[in-house]
Amino acid sequence: MSAMFNCPEPNVSYYFKWKRFVDFPIAALLAILAVPIVLVAAILVRLTSRGPIIYKQIRLGLDGKPFTIYKIRSMQEDAEAATGAVWAARKDKRITLIGQILRQTHIDELPQLYNVLKGDMDLVGPSSERPEFVSELEKRIDGYAYRLYVKPGLTGLAQLNQKSDIDLNDVRRKLIFDFDYIEHSSCWLDMRVLFCSFLKAVFLSRQPSVLKFFRLYREAKQSTWAETFLPISYASPGDEERLSQILEKRSIV
């Protein structure tokens, strides 16, 4: 992937050259442990709503290469039939009752371990995004496509430190966390992120004290990338309102 930006490129950590050798055995073990949980979730989805158990969607991976992501369906069947590609609102009525539980505990994401085993994703990395939204954000945020220099992850530094995006400011802050991870990724960092992600899923909370204990707590303004992406500016007054409407929703699945 090649692109021209005014934003400087992040220096990709050397760890990414052999990260696969760490991720694969861990993902294989987690996949085995996840089988009974996925089976129970699949049965509940089948009994409580119509439609396929597994939801498939196209996302962009390393160097912008499209791949199919897999999740346990948490929404009603054909949730986008009338609207086309949209991002799911935080209190989206299309999410089923079982789907709410699956999302809160991140059980719906366990099938993505298959994506990790295939090599489409890493265990830890920037969140994957849909092509429709990436093309829009690339126009608004200089250097946004640099996050595609590495594979997307099941979880990540940005996901732990920030809630769902509701405006362009949040996207920029999350990008700062992504760039920090790309530059400073290591096996030890990944293990801490995975453990805190497990705690977050089990206890359904994001406790800054836990992140601070594991030295994962970040504030975007303290990053070396803050000068690049903050303070926020918009190309025109209409951009802020338009993107706020788009980004108050998160990607479906």
Q: Can you give a write-up of this model?
A:
- The protein has helices at residues 19-48, 97-105, 112-118, 131-140, 157-161, 168-184, 187-203, 208-213, 226-229, 237-247; strands at residues 54-60, 66-72, 87-89, 122-124, 153-155, 249-251.
- By secondary structure, the chain is mainly alpha-helical.
- The chain has one domain (15-232).
- The strands form three sheets. The protein has a two-stranded antiparallel sheet. A two-stranded antiparallel sheet has the order 3-6.
- β1 (54-60) and β2 (66-72) form a beta hairpin.
- α1 runs antiparallel to α3 (112-118).
- The two termini are 26 Å apart.
- The model is unreliable at 79-89 and 248-253 (pLDDT under 50).
How would you summarize this macromolecular structure in one to three sentences?
With 253 residues, the protein is mostly helical. It has 10 helices and 6 strands.
What is the count of β-strands?
6
Main sheet properties: 2 strands, antiparallel
Would you list the SSEs in sequence order as H and E? HEEEHHEHEHHHHHHE
Which percent band covers the strand fraction? 5-15%
What coarse outline follows from CA principal-axis ratios?
globular
Q: Indicate the mean pLDDT.
A: 85
What integer value in Å does the Rg equal? 18 Å
* Class by SSE composition: mainly alpha
User: What are the segments in which pLDDT stays under 50 over at least 5 consecutive residues?
Assistant: 79-89, 248-253
What is the number of helical segments per DSSP (H or I, 4+ residues)? 10
Give the strand line-up of the largest sheet.
1-2
For the record, the count of structural domains works out to 1
Residues in helix, %: 40-55%
Distance between the termini: 26 Å
